[in-house]
Amino acid sequence: MERTFVMVKPDGVQRGLVGEIIGRFERKGLQIVALKMMRITPELAARHYAEHREKPFFKGLVEYITSGPVVAMILEGKDCVGVVREMMGATDPRKAAPGTIRGSFGMDIGRNVIHGSDSRESAAREIALFFTESEICEYSLNLASWIY
Ligand code: RTP
Ligand code: MG
């Protein structure tokens, strides 16, 4: 099993897309193992997006991601990192395939609704950045035993 870090960005929270986005992942069959609403500090934003520090959009990106609360989560499942990236769609929502999260809900690269780790290595780094061990729940999904 693989884990990935996912975040509904401030525009997704403000637009009331949290339930829709989490629902898509749940219905897909990915397991939520950690979930919280939080406000990202400029320091955390800079660490999270360290790879983009020299990019022209960095300042705007930090302002955007710190502009309101986000919903952070860890999802688990087979090939979870790639599956989530596919479901998110391309970085630029106008180019994202119809039916993907960004393709369905976004119009601007600077307001692209959701973040998901781009590799297993990024996932491990971002999970450690956003969650403590005690915030992660280990449990097995056994649907039948919850219905009957
Ligand atoms: P993310 O890290 O947020 O999941 O997005 P991503 O992997 O699809 O894209 P990435 O290249 O890592 O870029 C990080 C975020 O920076 C903003 N961005 N703006 N104005 C621009 O040209 C530009 N390019 C990137 C986006 O919000 C992107 O999600
Ligand atoms: Mg990225």
Description:
The model has no long low-confidence stretch (mean pLDDT 96). The protein has helices at residues 10-14, 18-28, 42-48, 58-65, 80-88, 101-105, 120-130, 143-147, and strands spanning 2-8, 31-38, 70-77, 114-116. By secondary structure, it is an alpha+beta fold. The protein has a single domain, classed as Alpha-Beta Plaits (2-Layer Sandwich). It contains 8 helices and 4 strands, in the order E-H-H-E-H-H-E-H-H-E-H-H. The protein binds ribavirin triphosphate (RTP) and magnesium ion. Ribavirin triphosphate (RTP) binds at residues 52, 57, 61, 91, 109-110, 112, 115-116, 118.
Order of helices and strands: EHHEHHEHHEHH
The top level CATH class name: Alpha Beta
* Unique bound compounds: ribavirin triphosphate, magnesium ion
Strand content: 15-25%
- Reported CATH architecture: 2-Layer Sandwich
How many domain regions?
Answer: 1
List the topology elements:
Layout: E1 2-8, H1 10-14, H2 18-28, E2 31-38, H3 42-48, H4 58-65, E3 70-77, H5 80-88, H6 101-105, E4 114-116, H7 120-130, H8 143-147
The protein binds ribavirin triphosphate (RTP) and magnesium ion.
Family: Belongs to the NDK family.
Subcellular location: Cytoplasm
GO molecular function, one term: nucleoside diphosphate kinase activity
Keywords:
single chain; 148 residues; alpha+beta; Alpha-Beta Plaits; 4-stranded antiparallel sheet; 4 strands; binds ribavirin triphosphate; binds magnesium ion
Task: Tell me briefly what this model is.
The chain has 148 residues and is an alpha+beta fold. It has helices spanning 10-14, 18-28, 42-48, 58-65, 80-88, 101-105, 120-130, 143-147, and strands at 2-8, 31-38, 70-77, 114-116.
